[in-house]
Amino acid sequence: MKKSTRFTIAMIVLFFGLVLLAKIWHRNPESPSAEGATGADSAAEAADPKTAPEVSTTPTEIPSQNRTIDETAYQKNFSDGLREFNTCFNANVSTDPVEVTFENLDSLLRPVLGEMISKNQEWSDTQIKTESGEERHLRLQLDFSGEDGATRRLTYFRIDPSGTQVPFELGPDQSEDPNDTFIASLEGDGEVVHRQHEVRVYYPNGEEVLFNDVDGKLMEFMVTRLDGKRFECMKLATEQSSCRCK
Q: In whole angstroms, how far apart are CA 127 and each of 197, 199, 206, 212, 214?
C-alpha cells in the first residue's frame, strides 16, 4: 500500500475518533471540578434540612436587663404618655401612676372609647432557650389571606450563631391552626424565656387600640380613631420611651 494511501486512511480514522469523543463529551459534560461543586452543595443541603422560608422578626425589641427601668420610672413614662394622649385627643383621662397593663389602659380609656366589643391576637412570639443554650422562637400569626377567614399560622425557628433565623419544617397540620397540645410540646424543647403578644382591640365607634406586651409588661400601644387620627407610645419600659400624636 502506498504511503499516501496509508496516511489518508489514518486521517479518516483520526477524524471519526474525534467525532466519537465529542459525542461522549456532549452526553456527560461535567468536569471533575463541577462534580466536586455538586457534591459540596448536596452535603450542605444534607447538613441543613430546614428548607422552610425565613420568617420575619418580631416588631418589638425585647429589652435587655441593663436597659430596663424600675417600676416608678415605668409608671411615669405611662403617665406622661397619657398626658400627651389627652392633648392629642382633647380628652381627660386620669394620669395618676398605676400598674402598666392593658387592663388598666382599657379602664382609663373607657370614658373616651367606650366598652371594648372584641379583640384579636395578631401574633405571639415565645422565646425558648434549650439545654445547649440555643435560642428558639415559636411564632403564631393571624393570616387573613384565605377565603375561610383568619387562620393561625405557626412558625418554629432557631437563631444560629450569626443571628440568622433558621426555620424548622412543619407539616400543614402542624403549622395551620395548631392545637395547644402541639404548641406546648414545642415549648417543652427548652425553658421559656420571654412571651410577647400583639393584640388589636375594637370599640363601638370604630376606634381601635393595638397593644404589645412582653412578659406581661405593656411595651407599646396605639389608639386609632375612625377619622384616621392616632396616638402611639413606644418602648414604655425603657429609657427610650416616646409618644407622639399623628
A: 12, 18, 34, 15, 11
CA distance linking residue 124 with residue 145, whole number of Å: 18
55 inside domain? no
- Determine phi and psi for 203, rounding to 5 degrees: -125, 165
Examine the domain organization and report whether 130 and 22 are in the same domain.
Answer: no
* 60 domain-assigned: no
Helix (H, G, I), strand (E, B) or coil at 126: strand
Q: Which residue has the higher pLDDT, 41 or 190?
A: 190
Q: What was the pLDDT predicted at 34?
A: 37
200-to-26, 212, 223, 236 alpha-carbon distances in Å: 62, 9, 10, 18
Same domain as 236, residue 157? yes
- From first CA to last CA, the distance across the chain in angstroms is 102
Residue 4: is its pLDDT beyond 80? no
- pLDDT, tens digit (0-9, with 9 covering 90-100), for 135-184: 999 999 988 776 777 889 999 999 999 999 999 999 998 999 999 999 99
Strand, helix or coil at 220?
strand
| Residue 176 near residue 151, CB atoms below 8 Å | yes
Mean pLDDT of the chain: 80
Q: Please indicate, yes or no, whether residues 101 and 70 belong to a single structural domain of this protein.
A: yes
Dump strand ranges (E) for 59-207.
118-129, 135-143, 151-159, 165-168, 191-202
How far apart (Å, rounded) are the C-alpha atoms in residues 178 and 56? 19
